Amino acid sequence: MTSTTKATSANATTTAKPASKLDTLEKLLKRKTGVSIADMTKATGWQQHSVRGAMAGAMKKRGHTIVSEKIDGTRRYRIEEPSGE
Question: Is the residue at 11 inside a domain?
Fold first, then answer.
């Protein structure tokens, strides 16, 4: 008898890397209406100061400009779209 090896399904398929918390934060910040600190802390599980730090550091490092607006008494943050020049 001869033995043959079969390709495993793990080799045949690629697995997508799960979204990181920074990716989740970036997705939330890309909403046209923006996102509140409370929404970001709920989505990431981070504390408020960690969310603010991520916006000030990692999001800017990724090349995004964060703007904040007070809408109906709630501070909302979003990524500013680059001007189309």
Answer: no
* Cα distances (Å, whole numbers) of residue 18 to 15, 35, 83: 9, 22, 31
**pTM for this one?**
0.73
- Residue 39, in any domain of the structure: yes
Spatial CB neighbours of 15, under 8 Å, sequence gap ≥ 6: none
Encode 37-70: b = buried (16+ Cβ within 10 Å), e = exposed.
bebbeeebebeeeebeebbeeebeeeebebeeee
Q: What's the pLDDT tens digit per position in 16-60?
A: 778 899 999 999 999 999 999 999 999 999 999 999 999 999 999
